[in-house]
Known about the structure:
Shape: globular
Number of helices: 11
Strand content: 15-25%
Oligomer: single chain
Largest sheet: 8 strands, parallel
Helix content: 25-40%
Distance between the termini: 27 Å
Strand order of the largest sheet: 2-3-4-5-6-7-8-9
Order of helices and strands: EEHEHEHEHEHEHEHHEHHHEEEE
Amino acid sequence: MPDRTITELTIRRPDDWHLHLRDGAMLRAVLPETTRHFARAIVMPNLVPPVVTSTDAMEYRARILAALPEGAKFTPLMTLYLTEDTEPADVRTAFEAGIATAVKLYPAGATTNSASGVRDFEKVRPVLETMAEIGMPLCVHGEVTDSDIDIFDREAVFIDKVLKPLRKKVPDLRVVMEHVTTSDAVDYVRDSHKNMAATITTHHLIINRNHILAGGIKPHFYCLPVAKREAHRVALVQAAISGDKRFFLGTDSAPHTDPNKLQACGCAGIFTAPNTMSCLAEVFDVAGKLKKLEAFTSLNGPNFYRLPPNEDTITLIKGDPVRYPDQIPTEDGPVTVFDPGFDLHWRVEG
C-alpha cells in the first residue's frame, strides 16, 4: 500500500541505462526529453548505418553533444554495435580511450535496425574474450529470432540456448540483459552471483500483453521484447522495488513517428522519456516502496558500470495530476508519448 506520509522525495539524479536517441531531426526533437531529468544514458547504436567502430561512436557522440539544449548537463555513454566483423582491437581502443562504455549484442533480426546483428556467436567470441579481459560490459537484446519459436517464448529460450552457453564459454564477461520481460529472466539474474545484471523498462512495469491486444490492437503499446502475461509484469515490479543491485532502469525509450507506428506493419518501440520518472514514482508508491526508487534509478546502474553516482539531485513532489504532452513534434511527424493509463501524481523538480 502507498505510504501516505511521503509526499516529497529527493534522490540523486537518475541515469538511463538503455536509450534510443536516433539521429538528425528525431535526435534534436527527443534529446531534451531525456536531458530534463537524466544525467547520463547508455545510447543504443542501431542507427542506419549502425555505430560499429570507435570512429562511428565518436562521430555519433559529437552529433548528440551538438544537439544538446542550451545549459543541459548530459553525458551520452556510447555503445558499439557488435557484428561478426567487429575487430577486438578496435573495441579495446574504444573502451580504454573512453569512447565507448559498452558493446551491444543484437541477434540478427531481433528488433528495429538489427539486420547487421550476430548469427554465429562463435564468430564474435574473440571480441567477447577481449571485453572480458578489459571489463567492458556486453548489453544483450535477449531474444532468439527463430521463426518456429513463439514470440512470447523468445526471451526464455534465449537464456537457455544462447546466454547460458555464452557465459560458460566466457565466464568473466560482464553482461547486462536488457529490457527483461519475464520471470524467467528475473530468476536467472537473481541466480547469477557475479558479472550479470538486467535493465527493466518503465513500460514493462506497467503494461502486460492484454494492454496491447484486448479491446483492439494498441500500436503505441507495441514494443520488442513484447509485453508478456500479468504474472511476468508482477515479477518485474518485484525485482525493481527490491533494491537488488543487479536490477536498474533502462527505459528503452524508442521514438517512432506516428505514421511509422500506425501502419499495417508498424514499428516496435514506446517513447517514455518525458514521463518516466513520474510513472516510476507512481509504481513504487503503489507498492509502498518509494524509498527504493533511488536505488533502481540512480545507484544500481552506476554500481554495475563502475561509475560514481551523480552528485546532484531531483525532487519528486506528490500532488494534483501532472499533465504531459500527448505528442512531441518532430520535422518528420509527431511522436506519441507513453500513456500509462492512470493519473500521474508525482511531478519532477530540479
